[in-house]
Amino acid sequence: MRRGIYIVANDKVSENAIALLNSIRFYDPDTEVFLIPFNDDHQTVFAELQKRHNVQLFPDLDFLNQFTDTIANIFDRDFLALPNKMRKLVAWSGPLDEFLYIDTDIIVFEKIANVMDHLAEAEFLCCDFHFKGRGLNDVFSPLVKEQGLFSDEQLQDVFNSGFWASKKSALPLERMVELLRECAAHREYFDFSRQTTDQPIMNYLVLKSMPRRVNLVKLRSNEPGSWAGSPNFQEKDHILYDRGTPLRYLHWAGTSMKPGSPYRDLWEHYRYLHEPRPVTTEPPEPTPSPWQMLTRKVTRKIKNTFQ
């Protein structure tokens, strides 16, 4: 049985991809990793990841392009504006029998491939608190529950599409295309209000086709969080802790990753794990315009008058 990790990337997200792979390889030098190109602009990031970490390219780019065309033909442009965001779905048609998919706005703090051990009793695995936090937001519209499309128990298994694992055998291509056509016929089922292109569709595919699902956060009472928007994590030796329990991974989903953003120093640690960290300087304050100088002068006079 062949087991490994998939990521989707292009040159635009090369810095994030390097940080992610640096963290993966720090804890796990051996597990196979495949890059699924987001588009044709992937040569630079692939060459870098291949050189640094022996990352392999998804082996059938013709199939990948055909799959993208199929997605574009199934969905109207006003339904699914960017078919390339669905390319992660080719993981079910790739070379790995069991696989973990990871978004590039993530870093990990353990041998993350070990989570796939839980696939011994499941067809799909995730590890997040979306069901407790966002609930059906960014996944389904209230209509899904009103019409009884899924049970309340099934809807407790909604998940974030940035970190998940499955088996190649769990979703044959023919069944996937059938389900995608169902999705295309019912835009009203989905919540795309925050432009989560693939997440609503993926949840539909999984809940419809994979009855054996596991969410790791439900398996133990002290399972840590993973969202970079949480201010409560503590750092020790370049690992984050949630109430004393080390995080498996940190995900900047919907959260800024720019300098000054949450946990940016930790991201920079992993990004520059094997090279000198560049010296950064704060940009100089812009010179105020004459109008701004006049406004500030008038404001000071008003304040002095009433002090």
Description:
The chain is of the alpha/beta class and 307 residues long. Helices cover 31% and strands 15% of the residues. The protein has 9 helices and 12 strands. The strands form 3 sheets. It has a 7-stranded mixed β-sheet with strand order 3-2-1-4-7-6-8, covered by helices on one side. Strands 9-10-11 form a 3-stranded antiparallel β-sheet, with no helix packed on it. The N and C termini lie far apart (77 Å). The C terminus is likely disordered.
Tags for this entry?
disordered C terminus, 3-stranded antiparallel β-sheet, 7-stranded mixed β-sheet, 307 residues, alpha/beta
Give the biggest sheet.
7 strands, mixed
Secondary-structure element string: EHEHEHEEEHHEHHEEEEEHH
Terminal residue distance? 77 Å
Note poorly predicted spans.
301-307
Alpha-beta content class: alpha/beta
Radius of gyration, CA atoms, in whole angstroms: 22 Å
Give a quick precis of the structure.
With 307 residues, the protein is an alpha/beta fold. 31% of the residues lie in helices and 15% in strands.
